[in-house]
Design goal:
The chain has 228 residues and is an alpha/beta fold. The chain folds into two domains: 65 residues, no CATH class; 105 residues, Pectate Lyase C-like (3 Solenoid), CATH 2.160.20. It has three helices and 15 strands. The chain has a six-stranded mixed β-sheet with strand order 5-7-9-11-14-15, with no helix packed on it. Strand 14 and strand 15 form a beta hairpin. The chain starts with 19 loop residues before the first strand and ends with a strand.
Length: 228
């Protein structure tokens, strides 16, 4: 008596649905690739871990052109899951499979990377700042090796250092920097300002006049003290 092998179960096949991003190249292709590079520079991880479909319906490429485009994407570490919109006759074993009947959904917003702040720089004035002159340097500190005359003005995004007499107007922290300070060898200013706060000569009093001084901001109030 011969034993019969048990019937084999049919191979189970189940459908799966995944969300995928669709890349849609346009002519001229060089410009499209340049835009793609700019996008990847802003968001280097945009395509990591995502299924990608290459929609070439607008290009109508031949087999060699499609292979070259896939190679260009591969150099950018972009791996394509399937191709849409190509003629079936150009597809080959070396290319991703041809996909049919895809349904577009909402456009994916590309995240924007905030721009890096401009680096702070220093400006040094060799000599004096004379009456009527205005020195504006919003991206950093200003150092004056001489004096600042009455009627002159210094505006800095950072701190202000005056190695002579300060007789004009000095406004530090103009780039919304409340930690900026003003230093001078001889304190005789017409006006002082840090961030959005100012004090005129009439509000300063005579106690520091002619002395080396520093000025800073503390809790929204301008503070002054002798350096001697």
């Amino acid at each position: 008596m011969t034993s019969q092998a048990p019937p084999r179960r049919p191979l189970p096949l189940r459908g799966r649905a995944f969300k995928a991003l669709s890349l849609t190249p346009e002519m001229p292709l060089a410009d499209w690739l340049a835009d793609l590079d700019a996008t990847l520079k802003r968001s280097p991880t945009l395509f990591e871990g995502r299924a990608l479909i290459l929609d070439v319906a607008a290009l109508k490429p031949g087999r060699d052109a499609l292979a070259a485009l896939l190679a260009d994407l591969g150099q950018r570490r972009i791996r394509v899951l399937g191709v849409e919109g190509a003629e079936p006759t150009i597809m080959g074993e070396a290319l991703p499979p041809l996909l049919l009947n895809g349904h577009p959904v909402t456009t994916v917003e590309i995240p924007q990377v905030p721009p890096e702040p401009e680096p702070l720089t220093s400006l040094t004035i060799d000599g004096a700042v004379r009456s009527g002159q205005s020195i504006v340097h919003p991206s950093g500190d200003v150092t004056v090796m001489g004096s600042v005359s009455s009627g002159a003005e210094i505006l800095a995004g950072g701190s202000i250092h005056v190695y002579g007499a300060l007789r004009g107007r000095a406004i530090a922290g103009a780039a919304r920097n409340p930690r900026a300070r003003i230093y001078c060898r001889k304190f005789e200013p017409e006006l002082l300002g840090i961030d959005r706060f100012v004090r005129t000569a009439e509000e300063m009093g005579p106690s520091l006049r002619g002395k080396a001084a520093q000025i800073w901001l503390d809790g929204g109030a301008i503070k002054m003290a002798s350096l001697d």
